[in-house]
Design brief:
Strand order of the largest sheet: 9-10-12-11-15-16-14-13
Strand content: 5-15%
Number of helices: 43
Shape: globular
Structural class: alpha+beta
Distance between the termini: 75 Å
Number of strands: 16
Radius of gyration: 35 Å
Length: 947
């Protein structure tokens, strides 16, 4: 049963007669005390406003209508302003009996002029003055404004006469739009009506096309600034694409061009069908409900639906979880579907508007327009024509006569490089019921779709148009399930459907040779990929099973096994697509969370890949997937990891992996280093520094870095520095490298990680080595922050200085971390269940410990402190962040270089790590080393390093 919606006047927000009576009493009781009168009046209005808005909030929860809530708050505001206006004139300025010619008019403009007002929105007012205003007019307006300001309202206001309004409207489209929406509140009705008559006659008449062009250009610029997509996972409900402002733009244009006051009149005019108008109302009501809840929840004019309030808004609106989707994800999917509906309405409205403008053009203009803009035939089709570079339908029955034409429209537009006429897209939207099982199974329709997907031009644009028109989700129902679906995390910037389309766009860009600088290896291998069709299909479908209870890679492979034959792929191609989707996360996870210098990592990955063709395709799919997640997610360091994994695996699969023993390869590397050291060094120095490092160092560190490290250590020795740091930037990799030379210590990585956290540096990887004379040579890689090398070097120098200060005891680690984090509240928006995995099968030499939990400053330092407490020696650390979630992997041994094999010890490691991940180990921070770290016997690392 539907809940009854109470009209604003019936909703109990305000007893207007009672408020007037109380104001009269205040006036009479304080007639001789103006300040006291003002204070009492202010208190009365504050009480009335607070109670009225609280009642509006209660009704919003009761009936759920956002439009009614906005109308009620607008009505409440009207009454407060009217009573204030009358009180001001009658009791403050004794102007209650002024002649009609001297009266002012208070009008609402902007959103308030439409009779809707969000709880935290500005109140836009136009005070309209007569041609000859009375002396009291402006002081009275000032008195009203000060009361409104003291009530806490943000008031946008202007004081003008009619002539000024008309003249300013001619040159300022913002003012013209404000007056278009002007609504009488109180004062002189005659003055308000005169403005309306003159505005219609002198401004509106004959300027419809000019106004429409300005508003659509304004909308396009607003969309551009917002990212030009309605699928951002933290959308702006008011200004974003598919938001309230887009609906307002339609209303402004309709009101200006069709001279209507109510959008319902668009149905009578044939602009919208009755069903489309209902969609307009539902979208408007839903967006207003979201916006009103946001304002009530935050206590301010919050327009961005950010992660930290999405969960609470979903709860306010009554959403419940569903298998595979949380309540907040269901709410956000509904939000994006509504935003898509707004896009549909915009297209339909603009198509009708364009036709109407052409019909209403003056005779000669219309004739010239028909001659210059006549439609042209498109080679190869009789069903579609070109109209000024845009494809449109040749007749009203094109889709009904042959439903394949719905797919063919996008195919012909692609191969001819045509934009879409809004009328064509309007007809597509209205013909979606024709996209049925018969069309999905049609061989020609699937052939055309595959051609669109693998187009050498811009497949992402065509797919996005198909998606926005509703065709893609109908033609591929499995895709329809992920349309508008968001994932409630900080990692993914777009909805799932938008992510997939963007991934296809990245693939097309690589395929067309435009990504040589950003992705040199993908650029190199793409021409050698034998089956680009299978790759394009895999990229489009790789996340198609998101939102299901089952793992989306496994479920997605099942979906692909069903869809690929329908698309016309062979059994061999189908199996390839199925494998790519099932393994689409594997290469990324191995590259970012495993030690690529450990042969077992490469062997295990190669066993899974098995062929060079799969390796190439998986590389490109991985690049497309990461790139399409969102701005800033991809960086050069991830690219370097993928390239390293690719090259190592390629060697193994092709049989090129070195058969020399590890010791023989290390001996050869040492000889190469000896020859590469500067010729002006003494023979003794060259031999000393060539023999300074153990085999693992020589086999994993590049020759260039070995030479650089030798020079760095030699310089520190000459300066008698016990502790030294050196930094280097890698602009292409988007990381900065900090190398630390220090006396060895079991907690060294803990201290370095803590110092980096204190300096605000995000560690992405760590290489840990011990020299033969017992010193630690650790290289920390942190995310780059500044584009300019000189700025980044200064930042890196600051981080290096922080590490030196902590290691030398000049600064105490718990204090510097506390200073860094004291202003940060721990995020309660996201939850990640702490998980610890211990494996002895991922490496032949090391136990691999992987943790997964909610990220926070100082976490790595605390985790490594626990590992040190547990007498574990860390050989390498790999730090991977996915938005709010972190996955850190540590390759460890015990203090005598053995794996951790006993169940009791593994259970203790898991328990201790879970405690610190849950932030239950505050005492660890107090135990962190803060003074000078004395040199200790290097046995622990020596034993591990010599193995």
């Amino acid at each position: 049963m539907e809940k009854k919606l109470l009209a604003p006047a019936e909703s109990g927000l305000l007893d207007v007669p009672a408020l007037r009576a109380r104001c009269e009493f205040i006036a009479s009781a304080n007639a001789d005390y103006r300040d006291r009168m003002r204070s009492a009046l202010l208190a009365e209005f504050k009480k009335a406003n607070s109670e009225g808005r609280e009642r509006a909030r209660e009704l919003l929860f009761s009936d759920g209508s956002g439009l009614q809530c906005a109308a009620r708050i607008s009505w409440l505001q009207d009454q407060l302003i009217t009573v204030l206006h009358d009180f001001t004139l009658n009791h403050v300025f004794s102007a209650g009996q002024a002649s009609p010619a001297a009266r002012i008019t208070v009008t609402a403009v902007g959103g308030y002029g439409r009779g809707t007002l969000a709880p935290g929105s500005d109140i836009d007012l136009l005070f309209l003055l007569p041609a000859k205003p009375a002396a009291w007019s402006e002081p009275a307006i000032e008195f009203m404004l000060y009361i409104l300001w003291d009530l806490g309202f943000k008031v946008g206001h202007a004081t003008r006469n009619i002539e000024e309004c008309i003249q300013l409207s001619k040159g300022d489209m913002t003012i013209r739009t404000a007056i278009l929406e002007a609504r009488f509140i109180c004062g002189s009705v005659a003055l308000f009506e005169e403005l309306g008559v003159r505005f219609d006659r002198e401004i509106v008449r004959g300027t419809g096309p000019e106004f429409i062009a300005a508003k659509l250009a304004e909308r396009d610029e607003r969309h551009r600034k917002a990212g030009d997509t309605r699928y951002l996972v933290e959308p702006n409900v008011k200004e974003g694409k598919g938001g309230l402002r887009d609906l307002h733009t339609l209303f402004w244009i309709a009101k200006y061009f069709y001279h209507i006051r109510d959008p319902a009149e668009l149905v009578k005019l044939g602009v919208l069908s009755r069903q489309e108008y209902k969609l307009f109302q539902k979208a408007d009501d839903f967006l207003w409900a979201v916006r009103c809840h946001m304002h009530f929840l935050t206590g301010k004019a919050e327009e961005r639906l950010s992660f930290d309030i999405q969960r609470e808004i979903a709860e306010c609106l009554g959403y419940q979880p569903h298998p595979g989707l949380s309540a907040v994800e269901r709410f956000m999917k509904h939000y994006f579907l509504v935003a898509k509906d707004v896009g549909d309405l915009t297209r339909i409205f603009c198509a009708t508007l364009e036709d109407q403008q052409a019909k209403e053009a003056p005779g000669l203009t219309a004739a010239i327009s028909r001659f210059t803009h006549r439609t042209r035939k498109i080679p190869g089709t009789l069903d579609f024509v070109e109209d000024r570079g845009r494809i449109t339908i040749a007749g009203p029955d094109v889709f009904k006569r042959d439903p394949v034409n719905i797919i063919r429209l996008f195919h012909i537009a692609d191969i001819n490089g045509l934009e879409f006429h809004p009328d064509a897209l309007k007809q597509v939207t209205r013909s979606l019921k024709l996209v049925n099982a018969a069309l999905r199974d049609d061989e020609e329709a699937n052939r055309l779709f595959l051609s669109i997907l693998t187009s050498p031009r811009d497949p992402a644009l065509s797919l996005r148009r198909m998606n926005e028109a509703g065709v893609l989700g109908r033609f591929i129902p499995e895709f329809g399930k992920i349309v508008a679906m968001m994932q409630f995390n900080m990692y993914h910037h777009y909805t799932v459907d938008e992510h997939l389309i963007r991934a296809v766009g990245v693939l097309a860009s690589i395929d067309q040779g435009r990504e040589k600088e950003a992705h040199p290896l993908s650029y190199q291998v793409m021409p050698a990929i034998e089956d680009r069709i299978a790759l394009y299909v895999a990229v489009l479908l790789h996340d198609i099973a998101k939102g299901r209870p089952e793992d989306h890679s496994v479920a997605g492979a099942k979906v692909a096994r069903k869809l690929c034959p329908r698309f016309g792929l062979s059994p061999k191609q189908t199996e390839l697509v199925v494998w790519l989707i099932q393994e689409h996360l594997t290469m990324s996870m191995v590259a970012q969370t495993r030690d690529l210098n450990d042969r077992k990592t490469i062997v295990d990955f190669a066993d899974k890949v098995q062929s060079l063709e799969r390796l190439k395709m998986l590389l490109v799919l991985t690049v497309c997937d990461i790139r399409a997640v969102g701005p800033g997610v991809w960086n050069g360091w991830k690219g370097q990891l993928l390239r390293t994994l690719y090259y190592e695996t390629e060697l193994l699969i092709s049989g090129g992996f070195s058969e020399l023993s590890r010791k023989e390869r290390a001996r050869a590397a040492r000889e190469v280093l000896l020859k590469a050291l500067p010729a002006d060094w003494s023979q003794k120095d060259r031999k000393t520094y060539a023999n300074l490092n153990y085999d693992p160092y020589l086999l994993t560190v590049s020759l260039e870095d070995q030479v650089r490290h030798a020079a760095f250590i030699r310089e520190a020795d000459r300066a008698r520095q016990t502790l030294a740091t050196t930094v280097r930037t890698h602009s292409f990799h988007a990381i900065t490298e900090i190398t630390v030379l220090s006396p060895d210590h079991p907690r060294l990585l803990t201290v370095i990680a803590g110092a980096c956290a204190a300096a605000g540096a995000n560690i992405v990887d760590a290489q840990i080595f011990t020299t033969s004379d017992g010193r630690a040579l650790d290289t920390i890689l942190v995310n780059r922050e500044f584009p300019n090398d000189s700025d980044e070097m200064r930042r890196a120098g600051t981080i290096g200085k922080m590490i030196e200060d902590v290691l030398s005891g000049r600064k105490r680690l718990p204090e510097v971390i506390a200073t860094r984090t004291k202003s940060r509240k721990r995020s309660r928006t996201f939850t990640v269940s702490p998980a610890v995995t211990i494996s002895n099968t991922l490496s032949n030499k090391f136990t691999v410990i992987e943790i997964e939990c909610l990220d926070r400053p100082g976490l790595l330092s605390e985790v490594t402190a626990v590992l040190s407490d547990l007498s574990l020696d860390i050989a390498s650390a790999h730090i991977t962040t996915f938005g709010e979630k972190v996955i850190d992997t540590f390759y460890v041994t015990d203090l005598v270089g053995q794996k951790i094999t006993t169940d009791n010890r593994q259970a203790n490691i898991i328990a201790r790590l879970k405690a610190v991940m849950a932030d239950e180990a505050d005492e660890l921070r107090d135990r962190m080393p803060s003074g000078m770290i004395a040199p200790v016997p290097a046995t622990p690392k020596k034993v591990r390093a010599e193995q």
